[in-house]
Amino acid sequence: MAAGVVHIPWYATGFRGDDFADRLAAFAALAPRYGATNYQVFRSRDDRYKFLQTATFESKLDWERYWEGEDAIAFRVNHQGWYQIQVLYSWNDLLASGDALAPELVVEETSIVVVEEHPPA
C-alpha cells in the first residue's frame, strides 16, 4: 500500500492568525505519535489567516486514529473560535517525493531508477 498525504486547510478568524499559527504547529507535531512519517504546516504570505497542514501516513487507518483521537478532538474543541468551520481534509496518494540532500528515486511502472546525486554548488 502506498503512503498517503493528508491536506488540511485551515482559515483563522480575525486577529487570531499568530496565536493560531503557534497552536496549529504544536498540534501538527503530535502526528508522529499516531504513525505519521512527516508533517508540515504552511502559512500563506498572501493571506496571513490561511494555513495548510499536511501529514504523511503509511495507512489511512493511522490518519483516522490521529484525526479522530483525543488530541485532535481536544484541539478542535479548545480552539473552535479560532478557525472557520468547516474543516475538510483530503487524502492524497503519494506518487513521488524528493529532497535536495538525497538522491532522487524515479518510480516507473516496472522499475526504480536511482538518479545520481549532484554535489551542492
Task: Explain this structure.
There is one protein chain. The chain starts with a strand and ends in a 7-residue tail after the last strand. The chain is globular and about 45 Å long. It is α+β, with helices and mostly antiparallel strands and 121 residues long. A hairpin with a 6-residue loop joins strand 2 (36-43) and strand 3. Helix content is 24%, strand content 28%. It has helices spanning 17-28, 60-67, 70-78, and strands spanning 4-11, 36-43, 50-57, 90-93, 105-107, 112-114. It has one domain: Alpha-Beta Plaits, CATH 3.30.70.100. It is built from three helices and six strands. Strands 2-3-1-4 form a four-stranded antiparallel sheet. A two-stranded antiparallel sheet has the order 5-6.
SS element count, helices: 3
Portion in beta strands: 25-35%
Q: Tell me the structural class.
A: alpha+beta
Distance between the termini: 37 Å
The coarse overall form would be globular
Reported for the largest beta sheet, the result is:
4 strands, antiparallel
Assigned CATH class: Alpha Beta
What is the CATH architecture descriptor?
2-Layer Sandwich
The poorly predicted ranges are: none
Notable features of this structure?
single chain; 121 residues; alpha+beta; Alpha-Beta Plaits; 4-stranded antiparallel sheet; two-stranded antiparallel sheet; 6 strands
